[in-house]
Amino acid sequence: MKVFLCYKHSSVEIKWDLPFLPRIGEYISITELLSEKESKKLGAKNDYLKIINISWFLNKNSRKSSVEILLE
In this structure, are residues 21 and 69 in contact, taking their beta carbons and an 8 Å threshold? Predict the structure, then answer.
């Protein structure tokens, strides 16, 4: 499953192996999920960001889904 972390006007695709997604309102550690290069691309200045929305998209052609996690 493709998971995109979105912060302001940038996004980073990450590998998500857990069988569950975090909940809206929870904080996630950017330093644990992203490499230094990915963290710079995302542009977050804080180590922990709050999840404000989660959107699930199903691609009917490939039967693969993707998730966008919006961060604040």
Answer: yes
Q: What is the DSSP letter of 22?
A: P
Tell me the C-alpha to C-alpha distance, in Å, between residue 53 and each of 27, 35, 61, 63, 67.
12, 23, 25, 23, 10
| Confidence class for position 2, pLDDT limits 50, 70, 90 | confident
Query: What are 10's two structure tokens?
Result: 């940038």
Query: How far is C-alpha 6 from the chain's CA centre?
Result: 6
Residue 61 has a pLDDT of 76
d(CA 49, CA 70): 10
Say if CB 65 and CB 59 are below 8 A apart. yes
